[in-house]
Amino acid sequence: MITRRSFLSHTAGFTAAASLGSTLPFVAQAANPALALHGPPVGPSVVLSYIANKGLLSDFTEKVDFSVYKSPDVLRAGFVSGDWKLAGTPSYVAANLANKGLPVKMLNIMTWGMLYVLSYDGSVKSPADLAGEKIGMFFRNDMPDLVFGRVMEQNGLTEGKDYSLHYVSTPFEALQLLLSGRIKHCVLPEPAATAGMVKGKKMGKSIHRSIDLASEWSSVTGGEGRFPMAGMMVHDDLLNAQPELIEGFHKACVTGTEWVKANPKEAAAVASESITLPAPVIAKSIPHTHLTAERAKDIQAELEQFYSILAEKNPSIIGGKLPNADFYL
User: How would you classify the pairing of strands 86-90 and 63-68?
Assistant: First the structure.
């Protein structure tokens, strides 16, 4: 059952993180013989759960303790205190923290974007179909808002002139507006989008997954339909002390990602022990999470392009500048 409490926990974990510099995350603390691994209640944490439960790091540590955190404030406190060394985060948050002086690096990207426009209108298939409409949006001037705005702008649509946004504080509030019928469209991340569609169906409402903003990103960059939304960041202390663990962890991310994509039901069953959503909802969300495991150094140009586009409208979101070259592992 999807409760208000579980939905709030789930959405707050990933998207409210959009306020750490503008915020979010997954986290690990190296400690021989145990490794404490934490993550937010979103798609990449399904992979982390698999890594922890299936012993993929047994060559480097005797035990991996995985848990899901609920508040982005925990991420900030953990890294500032030095207690946390390896964390999943929106990619721009890692850049922001690095530019604020924290000794962190971007290890990899684990999702190529998981933002969607949900709509009651089945005829909405593209940004152009939203002309003249009001769309629910969370986190004003943060990553989801900036991504959506840039996609609309690239399609010749200007906010306030060609469409309007109804801003709310959280994804849960956006979905509540949609379910209540006060708005016809809203932007949501995964797995909140899937959870919302399932909840709508139980209420007798037909809600469509109308636009994949990752696919639409190609109109912005001229490249592939994807953007480097989130991945793992590493504290220099752990990187310098156990470089072999970090390399092994990334390889586990690659292996785990492929297994999760190929076995969504089994992966969801494992992850549902930690993520406060029903296993069937998690399983349904996995194909829409665009999971990957790409080394940051291999896609540095793509990350820098993403950071630069976000910073055009809000320079502070990445801390005012691009990170140094050694930020990308």
Answer: unpaired
